[in-house]
Amino acid sequence: LDILATCRKGAPVMSRLVNYPQVAEVISHGDTRSSVILRSGLQVDLRVVPRASYGAALQYFTGSKAHNIALRRRAAVRKLKLNEYGIFDGDEQVAGRTEKEVYARLGLPFIEPELREDHGEIDAALARKLPRVVKLDDLRGDLHCLTKASDGHLSVEALARAASKRGYQYVAVTDRFRPDAGARKPDPKRLRRQMAAIDRLNERAHRIVVLKGCEVDILGDSALDLPNDVLAAMDLTVCAVHSHFDLSRARQTARLLRAMDNPHFNILAHPTGRLGDERPPMDVDLERIMQGAKERGCILELNAQPTRLDLSDVHCRLAREIGVKVAISSGAQHEAHLDYMRLGVFQARRGWLERDDVVNTRSLAQLRRLLKR
Q1: Per residue in 197-220, pLDDT tens?
Q2: pTM across the whole model
Q3: Taking the CB of the first residue and of the last residue of the chain, which one, N or C, has fewer CB atoms within 10 A?
Q4: How many CB atoms are closer than 10 A to CB 207?
Q5: Burial of 315 per CB tally in 10 Å (0-12, 13-18, 19+)
């Protein structure tokens, strides 16, 4: 972890760091730079720079190495020198107080931090075609949340209150009722009771609309694990693979495409099925899946759970190029999980997604139109 700071002369920021109770080892301790290892094993480096250099240092430590090399080349062409202390013409600093100042001195518009990977962002900046990447404030709702009816810990009403506190216009209840042996099987009657309870809640609540949904299992034969008449009664379906992860690439791809043929299929949840160190992504042709989703009017989820973050940034970029829409969802089981949405937004920004690429930046009326197939 790199921490960058400016401070008044003589401020005890370095001693504050090295004397932090969680520090296990002090690697170095200086006036402008110190490095420690925490008890958790995390190394933390603190750098203090002059205020006039803060923007240049922030850009230097934020951008990838390849991005920074490309910027230094642009500076050299202009007979300038770029480093973490600023842009210099000989010995004179000509930029560095802000990041925008650094980019402007190199003839570039500001490039958002998440885009600084040397993946075409400099050419896009020169062509004035940088994406206006989505922001957390753009989101108007969460389309994948679980309640006490399945794996969650909140009632529907508590979930609605928590979502409303975050300024959302809508939140989807998408409980998962597992079809696997030993777990709760899908129960259409129970689902219909939940939908009726949501209708009653929506009649009382005015600040937020609760959408009726379900996390529907995609079975090994591509069937969805609920009958079509139940699926048709929902506002949306979030369809997911929870079994048969080891199919060949061709069979897994065909399985998902056939599942999307169901007219009640709306969102493909966590599309690769990855689960942190516990489970790798399944072998599937995501480009074909995205093409198929676009043709059928389906949406791909970017699941913001930190163990998933699925879609990846690379796949988000591919979705944008193909033109298939993405839903950023938390998969929340606790109230605190709703805040994972910021991680999903960070991922989407790295994948160049703009507001229009994300379905839950829409108003409720616009979202309902997008969900119709």
Answers
A1: 999 999 997 889 999 999 999 999
A2: 0.91
A3: N
A4: 12
A5: buried
